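Thread: Newbie trying to understand structure tokens

Hi all, I'm a second-year student working on a class project, and my supervisor (Dr. K.) asked me to get a predicted structure for one chain before our next meeting. I've only ever worked with sequences, so writing a 3D structure as a token string is new to me. If someone could post the tokens and maybe explain what I'm looking at, I'd be very grateful. Here's the chain:
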Amino acid sequence: MSFQPTLKGRALRLLSQREHSRRELERKLQPHEEEPGTLALALDELQARGFISEERVAESVLNRRASRLGATRIRQELQDKGLDSELIAQALSGLKDSELARARAVWQRKFETLPQTPQERARQTRFLLARGFSGEVVRRVLGGDPADKEA
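---
Reply by user tm_fold:
Sure, no problem. This is what the structure looks like when written as tokens:
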């Protein structure tokens, strides 16, 4: 006889590893649901007990990713986790102020010198854009404007 963990047990195991949104848990546990409706009941109970918290998910993503990614990429990750748009906007509100400094730090770790050729500029631009920094921030980082460094 093999042990089959319950949906609630599986959910708790996932939550013990990192914060998960309700939508993530639904997606991961759906294949294990034997009777329709049991997954929703289990998740409702966990949410009522405070094991599932969308706010903690947003905070966790920000803590893990903000130092390396721009607001656009973080917004996409939070949307993929099924978080409410109002909660996402609230979570990202503090990132806008530090966007330029974070982009400059990410760029500095990777490149250290301003691009000398159009090919280098394109490569560095793609690098920063892929990490979710806005076009304006990328232009300011790669522009090398000394006034921007003080701002």
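A couple of things are worth pointing out once you decode it. The radius of gyration is 20 Å. The mean pLDDT is 89. Feel free to ask follow-ups in this thread.
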